[in-house]
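=== RUN LOG ===
request id: a7f3
mode: sequence -> structure
chains: 1
length: 165
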Amino acid sequence: MKPVFIGVVSDSHGRFRELERMVEQAPDVSVWLHGGDYCNDGEDLSIYTGVPVYSVRGNNDFMSNFAAPECRKIRIDGMNIMLIHGHQWYGQQRLEKLVELGQTHAASLVAFGHTHRRFLKKTDGITILNPGSIGLPRDGHNGTYAVCTISKGILTNVRIYELTR
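=== RESULT ===
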């Protein structure tokens, strides 16, 4: 069985050109996760790529007519993933709540956004990932996204990429 490549993006804020560049850089992705703040961009991304896109609402999606939930559980290749924007919590509490969310739903990966900063940490067997912001990064000049590799139901690799100019 071939590995499954999952793209994770967040905080696009309507900057579709950056999403197009991201897709050009990550052609093998078969599923995208959009962590909110312009979750409508997730719908556009699905049309543009032709692959499934799972989105959640962020704190800037209050005007959106796109019916994305605040949190969602996704099962891909036998592995549970939790996706949430993460604006509900701050500081150290955020990490604790994300780990708790992963434990509650037996998730190997919990992906979130909101901070516009990259974050990757494995805690209690759960990988906590923030891909940063594709549209308005706060930790560099170029937008960022992540690609996760799942093989036989196991998360084997997570890598955060920066958009090339």
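=== NOTES ===
Strands lie at 4-9, 31-34, 53-55, 71-76, 79-84, 109-111, 118-123, 126-131, 144-151, 154-162.
The mean pLDDT is 91.
=== END ===
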